[in-house]
Design a protein that fits this description.
This protein is an alpha+beta fold and about 200 residues long. The protein contains seven helices and six strands, in the order αβααααββαβββα. α2 crosses α3.
């Protein structure tokens, strides 16, 4: 970030979110190919649903983590982010939940524990394109918000000192394409329904 006031604004947002229980992490944890913060999805699922993870791992003994991420990507592309977060998806012999919602009451300790396993993460300066070309095409977003490793929102920050919200809109419109301008392949993070 060139503008120091914008950098301070970004840090203030991150600090406020971390104070509310969000995690932060390096952009290197983001997988451009899958458009996921993979460690959070796997960590959430293993902690919230250990018996389902064991069952899945037993059914997929060769690289179960890789297989589960591939299945998640397929479901996101097929059904979309909101559908997967709200309802999960079914695989042979096991239901995969991608998120646990706050229970209406605390009478069921298992439901409460699963809710507490959710991982909310804010990540700054995410270079998101799997089609990047060093020196010519490497689009970046100021902040990306994740729920259990699944991107749900992207933010382009502007300080009032140099740029307005109109600059951010223009930047999304022209500098953050939903398809790689050269190959016309979709950008998973920004693709409608599947992305944030």
């Amino acid at each position: 970030m060139a503008d120091s006031k914008e950098a301070q604004f970004q840090q203030d947002i991150i600090t406020a979110m971390v104070a509310q229980g969000w995690l932060t992490g390096p952009a290197s944890g983001y997988d451009r190919r899958t458009a996921l913060y993979t460690e959070d999805f796997l960590g959430y699922f293993k902690a919230a649903w250990p018996e389902r993870w064991d069952k899945f791992a037993k059914a997929n003994p060769n690289a179960p983590e890789t297989v589960l991420v591939q299945k998640l990507v397929r479901e996101l592309e097929q059904d979309g982010t909101l559908e997967v977060l709200r309802h999960g998806f079914k695989l042979p012999g096991v239901k995969i939940e991608a998120c646990s919602f706050k229970p209406d009451h605390g009478m069921n300790p298992d439901t409460l524990k699963r809710y507490q396993c959710n991982r909310l993460r804010v990540v700054p300066e995410v270079s998101y394109s799997p089609h990047y070309r060093e020196g010519e095409y490497n689009p970046r977003l100021d902040l990306v918000l994740f729920v259990n490793g699944i991107p749900v929102a992207t933010l382009e920050l502007k300080s009032e000192f140099k740029q307005s919200v109109e600059n951010a809109k223009r930047q999304y419109r022209y500098d953050r394409p939903v398809k790689d301008p050269l190959t016309r392949k979709p950008e998973p993070l920004l693709t409608f329904k599947r992305g944030a």
